[in-house]
Each structure stands twice: as C-alpha cells, then as structure tokens.
Amino acid sequence: MLVTRRACLDSVLAELLRRRPRQELTPKAQDKVESIGNQCGLATLPGAHCTRLATDGGPLRDQLSGAKQGSSPRERVRELFHSSLLFLKALLDGIDETKLK
Asked: Fewer CB atoms inside 10 Å of the end CB: C or N, the chain?
C-alpha cells in the first residue's frame, strides 16, 4: 500500500514538473517540490509553505520507499499513509493552475 502511495507521489511530482513554465534541473525530491512551489505556487501562500513542503517531501518519499523493505507496525503504516495524503493535499492546494502549461 505504501509503495503505491510513493508511486502516486512520484507521478504527481512528474506531471507538475512537466507542466511548470520553466524547466530546471531537480535531482532530489526536495528540489522538485521547491521548483514546483516557486514556479506554480499561489501568490497568497506564505513563503515558508513551499520550503516546509520541500523539507517534508524528500524524507516522506524515503520513508514510503523504506516501508517495502520489511513489515512495519500497523500504526506506522497508517501514519505514513495519512502523512502522504496530507502532503499531497497541501501540495496540490497550493498550486495556481493558471501558471501550469
């Protein structure tokens, strides 16, 4: 279930990266989120919003990847599932669709 959530996160980031106005090199998940936020974020968002999402996104993706390595306690799986859902919601709610190609 968590590997699927990671794939969903990767797909959303890939699509948003493809649709941002200006392409730039973004090797890490944190770089991807920052680039998307800087280029496509709502003007009304506080400056720290994209920074916080970028800081949270990389480790969250790594935790979702690590979940496939062994069996995690049910509470941990639930926590990661909800964290990834909240992350995606915060990311997508902060996008100004008029800035996307």
From this structure: C
